[in-house]
Amino acid sequence: MNKSYIGIVAILSFILIACQKKEEASKVSDRKQLFTENWKFYKNDTIKSLNEALNANAWQAIDLPHDWSVYQEFDENSSAGIGGGALSGGVGYYKKSFNIPVEDSTRLHKIQFDGVYQNSEVWINGSYLGKRPNGYIGFEYDLTPYLNFGSKDNTIVVKADNSDQPNSRWYSGSGIYRNVWLKKLSKIHIPNWGTFITTPNISEKKALVNITAEIKNEFAKDKEIEVQVTIFQDDQEIVKSETSALSITANSAINFNKEVTILNPKLWLVDSPSLYKAQIDIIQNKNRIDRFETSFGIRDFEFDLEKGFILNGKSQKIRGVCMHHDLGPLGAAINIRAIERQLEILKEMGVNGIRTAHNPPAPELLDLCDQMGFIVMDEAFDIWTTAKTKHDYSQYWDKWHEQDLSDLIKRDRNHPSVFMWSIGNEIQEQWSNKGAKIGVELSNIVKGLDSTRPVTAGMNPPVHVSDKEVTIQFEETADKPNSLAGSGALDLIGYNYAHQTWEKHQLNFPNTPFIATETTSGLQTRGYYEFPSDTTKIWPVRWDKVFTGGNPDQTISAFDQVRTPWGSLHETSWKIIKKNDFLSGFFIWTGFDYIGEPTPYEWPSRSSYFGIVDLAGFPKDVYYMYKSEWTDEDVLHLLPHWNWEQGQTVDVWAYYNNADEVELFLNGESKGSKSKKGEELHVMWRFPFQPGTLKAVSRKNGRVVKETEIKTASKPAKIELSADRKELQANGLDLSFVTVNITDAKGILAPRANNQIDFEIEGPGKIVGVASGDPTNHESFKGKSHRALNGKCLVIVQSTKQTGEIIISANSTGLESKSTVLTSN
Length: 825
Ligand code: GAL
Description:
Helix 3 (336-349) packs across helix 4 (363-372) and helix 5 (397-412) runs parallel beside helix 6. The protein is built from nine helices and 50 strands. By secondary structure, the protein is mainly beta. The strands form twelve sheets. It has an eight-stranded parallel sheet with strand order 27-26-25-24-23-34-31-30. The structure holds beta-D-galactopyranose.
């Protein structure tokens, strides 16, 4: 054979092998892709058949995630009720056509939905794939047997039925509101949620990491494979295992197990949440045919009967907040930047814990909690067998609870941020034998899949009402087996409210540690204040009585002075948690306001008053009380604003830290120095109002720590815009949250301005949400105009896939307009 011929053959075979390798590698790297673009949507509540929907003309082009309810008008008579946010549900259809290349015809194709609200049904090319009632859980279908490969298109159709209302006590949103993924897999692969990584033995010097993976063989033949595990820390390879040879019989699955040791591990801490990645490669005939990556953390924790929550050997209070899943003006449709912004605002306040009230969260929330350092209480259910609203999950309980709970645990058990599982919130059966029985069943399901985390439940105590008094008796069923609390199902006794009983916990439950799963339920409208500020209002007066009080405009004072009868003022609950080591922490109801449940009011209110931060993401004043207690940053926050009637008696509060006194000056004249005494968390002055400048100076040992000023504003004159990010990624998903401040001519915030703000946008961006934090506003969150609340308003801008400059302008009759430029790259 001639030499040059041999040379050419060698080069060609080299290229061929290189190409094959590349192809294999790309096959593995496109294993899971977002499948959210170019869908079509059609809403119709009355048609009877799928065909009728498919033949309709009114299909609208959309991208997912998508929540159709947030586009509806607020309606007092909405079937979801005011509790559900006065936004209706109905029936929606989604479809998408897509093409699969012939070269992928040997691969398996699966579709994964992270959550569809609710009662989803899915068809591929006319074949029915299944139904999933639960609106919060992720699920997957195998498309492979029904697909066309090559030039012929495939069509996937999804029906979401949220028409039976009410089915939720809060705003649920409707439709495919979470991400969808297309997966292309080798017939031998690790299935969805198929790994479990634990760290059973941790010291400063080394950590033992236990990795379990299910490996499936969907070939009709037995197969020989090799498996290799590589561990990464910050994208740097730190451990590579020898390959392990395995055989898998046809159409079966095996459990692969490997222990690896990581030297000098970087522990996952709330302040420095170090993450590792385990990469599992499946190799067949020297080709890599599957790669599955699992992010994990190394941390050690316990809930101690005396010392409370201990993370990596150090006691730490859980300073948590409860969060519903909606993203305010964006509705329920998930967006990573929107979740990240919420978490940034909470982190800045000193929050270190999130409770996913009262359902499985978006997977992206947990990824962010892993990366940003939050202690998550991951909750499964708000209802078991007994309904709280007419059409809720209780009707699906018998058939679905086991699968829904198991899927939640399998999905979330590798997240280092998840520290406890909640099997339910204020379950109606909780104080009965039935509750004990179901609790034990659920706890066993959890333990069968993950025994590394405690099981808890948010339990509200039995309440006794007599003519004279209302008493709360959390203890009465303690340690008795005829209740969830006494059944042994719970590793942590979870208190919803009942702060009066927390200090008796060790007497009532001597063997089970404490967590306050839900507390406070204080009520506030951002920027609205009432005097005197030191009287407490209980709104409603009793939970079982219709509320007839309150203010005609449905405002609530933002001094920490209004609470629900079952809850407490913010300061009250925190003081108890703070001074008792054995109280491991709490989750305040709520971090952010949410759509729905506008306690204590009914219509025209349509969203909550509980948030420490309002629906637009603007902190209410009590945010700074927590910040002064929970962070080391110097805080000196004054409230209220400084626009009152001449001579009116006003109260001034200061939240402060890192100082031993605060002196207040009005127009240069001292109003005296004050210091927090004993357990106090704020100081207060009372005197007649005069316009001008109110200045506070905090001092430690005579040295100035911080100064804060607020000034009387004259009439509203200008708009100021500030974007939380000026630079966006041109990926069609990124967001900039632009705050509108209405100020007087000198730039002082006009604290009572409620001007109508009209927005315009130019360039490669879209307005995707507007809000002000006013629970009574009925303008659409999806409009381009919104009335400000107490000087503030928000517009949310989303990038497109085009780069360029985005100009966002805000105009209002009688005010100087303003625009700001964002850059999308
Ligand atoms: C709790 C309940 C929450 C919310 C809250 C309002 O009892 O668990 O979902 O309704 O009350 O205060």
